[in-house]
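To: structure desk
From: M.T.
Subject: fold request, one chain
Message: Could you run this one when you get a chance? Sequence is below, nothing fancy, just the single chain.
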Amino acid sequence: MASLFRSIRLEAAAAIGLMILVAVRVLVAFDLKPMWDLTAADNVVDRMRFDHVAAGICDGLFVLLLWVVLVARLICRRGVYGWAIGAWAIGSGFALYHGWDNAADFRFGSVWIGALSAGLTAMHLADHFKLRRLLMVSCAMLVLPLGLNAVHQITIQHQRDIEHYEQNKKQVLAEHGWEPGSAEQRKFQTRLYQNEATGAFGLANVFGSAAMGLMFLAGGVAMAAWRGGVAKSVKWTCAAVAVLGAATAALSVSKGVAAAAGIAFIAVAATWRLNRKRPDAMRWIAVSLFVVSLGGIAVLWRVALLGIPPTDQGERSLLFRYMYWDGAARMLYHNDPVLGVGPGQFQRQFQQHKQPYTVDGAPAGQAVCPEDVIDPHNVFVAYLATLGVGGLAWGAILIGWLVRAARNAADAWSEDSPAAVAAPPRSQSQWLIPGAIGAGWYAVVFFKHGPMMTVDNAIILAVSVALFVLLTGKLLQSALDERWMALGAWGAAAGILLHNQIEMAMTHVMAATLMMVILGAAAGSAKQSMPKARRWPAAIPGLAACIVLVLMGRGVTLQHYQRYLVSQCRGDTARWIPVENILQQTAAIRELNATWYDSHLYFQASVWDFSRSLSLLKDKDGMGMMRQWLKSTRNVAEERDDPRVWKLLAGIHSQNLDAEHDRQAAFHALKMLLRCTRYDIGQHLYAADTAWAMGDRGMARRWYERALILEKLNYLDPNSAMRAQDRRRAQRRLESAG
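Reply: Done. Structure tokens follow.
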């Protein structure tokens, strides 16, 4: 057989690009510092910012890779998975519909489109057994940088962070605006002293879900190498990588990960044991559908059996999942169940529609759930609530992937399945692909983190890349018992989808791409080639991918233009641009069809300085422009009912541009703001401070009291609690207004 690089050149190039882009999403996102970075301000080193524009370009490249693979299959007259591409196109259409004039919806929707594109690319590439092996091994070897960094963080970096904090405590407190001995400092120290390995993922369950999938893949690769014709040194090294994967998953200290991994392992063991005697793939389709539903069943069982906890103590994580899902159902009922609320709108809608619960000691009608989450912590609920019918289409892809992974695992142990795949002919080109991917990984991480890399980080990166290239190159040229790789992929698919019934890793910006690539590779048919297909029907999926790519390009272009305009109007006091010019820039945005109201809003909010800008509106023309802008903004606020727009209007009107008219408009905007954010402490505090400044002590008192009540219920999220000085100000003003 010809070498991999010669026989499927275009698809091999797509595989290289896919794994490099996965590294961009995973390794760049996995920061070298914890999420609560303790580095003092004077020691911070500038580094590349992976902003929304760069992320959008990355997502577009995933779609481009999918298009390249579809074109390659069209040229060779090989079939495509039309059902999956069709469902992906439907969901992408719904996401882009919401993102057409809404930047937040576009950002979230773009991430999801890119992640699913990566998974579909992996699914098609995995039809060739060599590329399937490449994807499995490459994903498994991502355990190396993630796991080694995690171990380094808990053994070395954590102690360094504590020492830095103890030596620079006054400076750290000053940078955060905290007072010594305050509740904020105590909460911060509690979080700091917890020895976590999650890095920039920030969320133990998200990190654990990713590590669990890699653990199963690495285990399957290790068993395939152990049972195949591989040198002992390679066998033992692969076994060590699998152990590192298990240790990395354990370091997340997630109960959900442990439970999901245990259930997935039982499913893998049952598949191996039963199919050795009587292969029956259909049986495992039923098993896979049951496995993926266990997470939701556990949550509903918990609430139905034990009810709502009567106190603030005790385990509440599953109860909160129930609250998220209840809020999702309510927001769909009050909005459009066909279209959904939009990928970036869940948090805003949840603030309005989450159900109030009552517990002992809490005021009647107060919400026990203190979180205003951006995701319902269930991949199917997330897609359904935000994309409606499009979310159902994407959910069908996930179920289809799980079923195909189960079938592949069962079929691999059938009587006509070879015990091992013969080693391909030796070829120097076999080293080019892992070498190119390894070089891409190194370049990506160094470009992002280079200025702040320590000696430890540089060593970890070099060791990870070197081991990846050596192991992948060896495994691509060796005889492997790939039945075990099929079992590992099935375990990864089952564990990931099971855990993501109560978690958000598959919709998380950093982890979604890796999750989808694992699932897509697991669902690949593992055959030599797909059946022959007629050319023109096979061209339709490629056309759909091309259309999605063009529409995403529009969004990325608008994001770039928005960032350019903001940079032009930002500056110090000496360079401050008059507000008339800002309003003219807004008109220019509209004329150029950049109709995102979010873009318009962010642009205004980023350059607006009330005290300076309003003083510049002295002439009649300037005031006329301001009134015209306020009218259009009020129309947007009424149409979108977005709290950010109401807050912007309240801030402008509270400056008393036109006495009583602006006073009434300001209070109306504040009331609408709080109607949209019934449980937001910060917004209530802002409304109370604004009312106090406008002289309405009664309204200010009501909102201060509400903010203090909400803080008592907000026992999970210290980041959204009041600062000590804000709390004292609220209490002092309540006493004076009493």
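Reply (cont.): The chain has a mean pLDDT of 76. Let me know if you need anything else for the meeting.
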